Every structure is written in C-alpha cells, then in structure tokens.
Amino acid sequence: MNLPLGFDIQPTTNPLGFNYGPGVFGPPCEFRSLDSIRPSLLDPQCAGPDPVYAIAMDVGTEDRREDLLARNLLFGVVTYAAGCLGNEPVRSQGHIHAVSQSCGRSTPELYEIWAGRAVILMQETAEDDPGRCFAVTAEPGEVVVVPPGWAHATISADPLQSLTFGAWCVRDFCFDYVGVRAHAGLAWFPKLEGGALDWIVNPRYLVRSQLIRKSPELYRNLGLRPGVPIWRQYLENPETVMWVPRPDRAENQWSEFVP
Fold first, then answer.
1. Mean pLDDT, the chain, as a whole number?
2. Torsions phi, psi of 189, nearest 5?
3. Where are the domains of the chain?
4. Which of 8, 97, 100, 184 has the most CB atoms within 10 Å of its CB?
5. Which residues pair with 194 in a beta bridge?
6. What angle do CA 230, 155, 207 make, to 5 degrees?
C-alpha cells in the first residue's frame, strides 16, 4: 500500500487486520464473520473466507485525537479478505446510517480506496421502491461519497486481492439494517462471471430499479480536492470534511445527489 495517506498504518492479511505505526492510535479490530452476512447474500449457504473483513473504527494520529473528539469526527479503516463468497465477491451486507443523536439525522460517509478495487453499491432507500441505484467503481486513491439516508454496501471487485479503505464518519455512528434485511439485501446482487462483475436484480423489491454503473464524481461542490488523501485534506483544513458530522452544512447537495 503505497498511497501517501498521511499517517503510518498498514493492513495485514494473516491475521486480517492493521498494524499501527509510531504516533498512531487505533483499537483492536472487530471482525465480520461469514455467518453474520449470510442473510444478505445471493447464496446464503455459500463458502468463503471467514472472517470476511476486519474493521477498526477511530484511528488517527495522537496529535489530532482531541481535535477529532471536538469535531465529532471519526476515521475508520477496513480491510477485506481476498477470494469470493460462492459466486459473489467479498462484500458487506449493507446498511443505512441511522439517525445520529449529535445532529438529529442520518449522516454521510466519505470513502477513500487504499488497495484493491471497490464498488460502492448504493440506493436512495431500503423500502420496496429503492429509488435510484448506483454501482460506483473506485480505484486506489479515489474517493466516494455516500449521502445521508442511503442504503449502501461495499464490494471488493477483484477476488485476487484484498480491498482496503479508509472512511470519515460521524463519531456517534449507528447502523440501521432493518430495511436491507427485510429485503434480504440491497436491490442488486453482485455476481462474479469469469472474474468480471455482473449484477442480478433482487426480486424482493416491488419496484424494479435501474442500476447506474459509473466512476466517482470529483465532489468539488463538497470542497474536496481530487488526488489529495482525505486525511491530509482534514489536516490542512478540517472544515473540508465537516459536512460528514454536520450534513446540514451541505444541505443543498443531498436532494439530487449523484455519487
């Protein structure tokens, strides 16, 4: 992992997790087992890597710890196992960001891909009509924004390598799985066909959606600078990412948002 992230953190594969360098804080990893995500898979009985991924919420450098607390910002890191889940890529089960007590609403998330190739699958709702659905493919160094209230899952598009990414979140984050689990997943299932990613509609949604496949936007309207690591953008100007814990600061962006 050769991206200039701004602090010393390295993913590991055996065991799955992270090593923190000097001056970097972070908790022991949590692990998502295969059994925990089976209900949202195309084939719930499939075989695959276990644990599926490791996640560490609240990492950063010691000199910024107090500032992160004061701003209600949290930086999380995730690394996925290589391989596949039956005929599906390694992925998360999908959720919505529940209403945070700190701001009284669902909050957005800012992803940055560090290694591998990601597809962020997202849809406007987890109701019977999922609304607009996007599959946003991102390479290392690219960022993806998930707007408030949208259901989303992160997918590893290359089974031959691990996917690793960082993300800015609100500190009092909470996940809502109700709508996704009621439909046994998001509106589209990813499937590997000859090493390439294909998509199968989830028939449990009553309204058939169109899946829009695309690259990430540059998000200049949110104040982001393409090609600059999101930790460094925070260091140089913390206000750049303050719409994450305070989505009202970008209120005019969310209604017709295109990721």
1. 95
2. -105, 130
3. 9-247
4. 97
5. none
6. 115
